[in-house]
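ok new one. same drill as before - structure tokens go in, u give me an amino acid for every spot. 60 of them this time. try not to just spam alanines like last time pls lmao
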């Protein structure tokens, strides 16, 4: 099984850790978790749903 390759946005900057981490290296799913609570749970999205979310977020 492939381990998630977690990364956070380069735009996170110095916001005291108020950001999310994304792992998009797994086949058929994109994982998202809170940087401040990495053991608190993970959301899983289908890649198309994640792309749609990111696309809409860029508009706002």
């Amino acid at each position: 099984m492939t381990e998630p390759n977690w990364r956070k946005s380069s735009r996170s900057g110095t916001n005291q850790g108020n950001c999310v981490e994304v792992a998009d290296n797994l086949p058929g799913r994109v994982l998202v978790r809170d940087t401040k609570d990495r053991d608190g749970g993970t959301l899983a999205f289908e890649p198309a749903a994640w792309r749609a979310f990111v696309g809409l977020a860029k508009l706002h």
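The longest strand covers residues 20-26. and btw Helices lie at 47-59.
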